[in-house]
Amino acid sequence: MHTLDPEKLPRHLAIIMDGNGRWAQERMLKRIVGHRKGVETVRYIVEESSRLGIGYLTLFAFSSENWLRPKTEVRSLMALLKRYLAGETPRMMANNIRFNVIGDREELPGDVERAVREAIDKTSGNNGMVLTLALSYGARRELLRAAAGLASDLAAGRVREDEVSENLFAGYLYTAGIPDPDLLIRTSGEMRISNFLLWQIAYSELYFTDVNWPDFGREEFYRALDNYQSRERRYGLISDQVRKRR
Ligand code: IPE
Ligand code: IPE
Ligand code: MG
Q1: How far is residue 99's CA from residue 126's CA, in Å, rounded to a whole number?
Q2: Which of 23, 144, 216, 232 has CB 3.0 to 4.6 Å from 34, enough for a Cys bridge?
Q3: Residue 220 counted as domain residue
Q4: Residue 87: which of 128, 115, 113, 55 has the closest Cα?
């Protein structure tokens, strides 16, 4: 039915998973029910992406700003995350998925941090898709941390000023070693970036859908990938140049 070109899949897909709360509220349910339903979508998207051969999948699960939500919601999200990690690690092993986290991990509650560390350790020998969860993640903080790291290496003489390049700088980010996202999807109709991967999405294709995250299933996923495949990535060039390069 679907005719995706396997040669033209995003190597790195990033997703801002938004709209769990609204999904629940529209159904007169508590917000946490939407988050639970959202976890089912995560499971599907992770396994389908890995099956398709996408190399890197990065999911925005909890922002540095989300700590300011009502305490009860933060607490339920952390509990959900811990349960997800415990439940999913065997499936990550079965699918050869390597688990990774970006963000200020030290801000996570101790038990969640431990669950994160265990999932990373257990899956560290896998060489299939890299699944990265952005947890307590904010791009400006990431950039500041990178700038501070670089400044201290410069001051200590570990790096010379003439060595400073885009590549070198990228190595100070949480995403060091991960290619930039080719496609960034955001669900729930919001058309903003909300402090996600500001450096890394310089040339990403952006895709917005009105569908809330719990409803982002096979049909929506393939629609987004189809749409991505129909685009021409010009990187500042003109169309003729791009075609000649191919
Ligand atoms: C996204 O859903 C999940 C998180 C940010 C943790 P939201 O909780 O933001 O849902 P809405 O945007 O309120 O509908
Ligand atoms: C962005 O969603 C963060 C995550 C998806 C984890 P938010 O719901 O927090 O973003 P805003 O507040 O609408 O910008
Ligand atoms: Mg939201």
Answers
A1: 9
A2: 23
A3: yes
A4: 115
**pLDDT tens sequence across 186-196:** 999 999 999 99
Could you give the residue ranges of the DSSP H alpha helices within 156-217?
Answer: 166-170
Alpha-carbon distance 235 to 45, whole Å? 28
Cβ–ligand 2 contact at 17 (below 6 Å): yes
Which CATH number does the domain housing residue 225 bear?
Answer: 3.40.1180.10
Mean pLDDT, residues 120-139 taken together: 98
| C-beta of residue 45 within 8 angstroms of C-beta of residue 221 | yes
> Domain for residue 2, yes or no?
no
- CB 220 near ligand 1, within 6 Å: no
Closest CA to 105 of 92, 114, 97, 118: 114
Give the pLDDT score at 2: 64
Domain count, the chain: 1
Question: Is 18 known to be catalytic?
Answer: yes
List the residue whose alpha carbon is closest to atom 8 of ligand 1: 21
Tokens of 128: 């299939």
Compute the distance from residue 32 Cα to the ligand 1 centre, in Å.
10
Residue 63: beta bridge partners?
137
Residue 62 sits in which domain range?
A: 7-138+180-245
pLDDT at 1 over 60: no
Residue 152 located in a structural domain = no
Is 127 in the active site?
no
pLDDT by residue (tens digit) across 83-97? 999 999 999 999 999
Residue bearing the CA closest to ligand 2, atom 2: 18
Does ligand 2 come within 6 angstroms of the Cβ of 63?
Answer: yes
Active-site choice (66, 126, 195, 227):
66
Nearest CA to ligand 2 atom 8: 18
Is 188 touching ligand 2 by the criterion CB < 6 Å?
no
